[in-house]
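Need residues for this backbone.
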């Protein structure tokens, strides 16, 4: 029984790809999909790290304002929006992982055929 294969159609600028691969220290044997996933992972990691730092500062500021007995309702709303975005990024990262596993599996299947 033949498995259905997911097809990816991507138009890439060769110079941008070379630049990306240089930035990620990848050799020319690295396939482009893996290179793109690595770049996305790096970007997502940076976003998550930045948001974590911002979350910590925001929490600290909220605690300070609460200690001064000031209204933090507006800040709480922004904190909740930030957390929603943070978890969306985490879910996106999990989806990227699933795509990479599927791509790697499909690639191995193709090589074995």
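Answer:
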């Amino acid at each position: 029984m033949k498995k259905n294969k997911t097809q990816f159609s991507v138009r890439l600028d060769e110079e941008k790809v070379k630049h990306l691969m240089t930035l990620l220290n990848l050799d020319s044997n690295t396939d482009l999909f893996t290179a793109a996933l690595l770049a996305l992972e790096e970007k997502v990691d940076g976003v998550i790290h930045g948001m974590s730092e911002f979350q910590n500062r925001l929490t600290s500021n909220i605690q300070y304002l609460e200690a001064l007995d000031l209204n933090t309702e507006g800040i709480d709303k922004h904190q909740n929006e930030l957390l929603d975005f943070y978890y969306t990024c985490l879910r996106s990262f999990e989806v990227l992982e699933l795509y990479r596993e599927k791509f790697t599996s499909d690639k191995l299947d193709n090589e074995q055929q």
